[in-house]
Write a structure and sequence with these properties.
The protein has about 120 residues and is of the alpha+beta class. It has a single domain (about 15-120), classed as 2-Layer Sandwich (Muramoyl-pentapeptide Carboxypeptidase, domain 2). The chain has helices at about 30-40, 55-60, 85-95, and strands spanning about 45-50, 75-80, 100, 105-110, 115-120. Strands 1-2-4-3-5 form a five-stranded mixed β-sheet. Strand 3 and strand 4 form a beta hairpin. Helix 1 packs across helix 3 (about 85-95). The longest helix has 14 residues, at about 30-40.
């Protein structure tokens, strides 16, 4: 698989690859969400954690059934925007669905159908 394959204007497959095995499943809805966040906030979106194989998810203490393991989640930072601002932006875009987790230095977003909000 070509790791530098463009998934959209601003994202490549490599950004989402599992660090332990290089695998990546990526939901197109997640990419669309990230592009909308980037457009809304006007800063580069940095994916700090994308797809995770089950082994890596366990290693980092990820939740059982994590959306990262389905290619439907990303932990992100946006240049020039605090995590709280990123979370509010994602919530505005997602409306009554999707997942948004607030953490000290990053924000979790996912493309699940049901609405989920939390603080980590």
């Amino acid at each position: 698989m070509e790791t530098n394959k463009k998934l959209s204007e601003h994202f490549t497959r490599k950004e989402f690859e599992c660090p332990c095995c290089g695998q990546a499943e990526i939901d197109p809805e997640l990419i669309a969400l990230l592009e909308k966040i980037r457009a809304s906030l006007g800063g580069k979106v940095v994916v700090t954690s994308g797809y995770r194989c089950r082994k890596h998810n366990r290693k980092v203490g990820g939740a059982e059934g994590s959306y990262h393991c389905r290619g439907m989640a990303a932990d992100i930072k946006v240049e020039g925007a605090a995590p709280e601002r990123v979370a509010k932006c994602a919530e505005s875009i997602l409306g009554g669905g999707g997942g948004v987790g607030r953490y000290g230095s990053w924000t979790h977003v996912d493309s699940r159908v049901a609405k989920a909000r939390w603080r980590g």
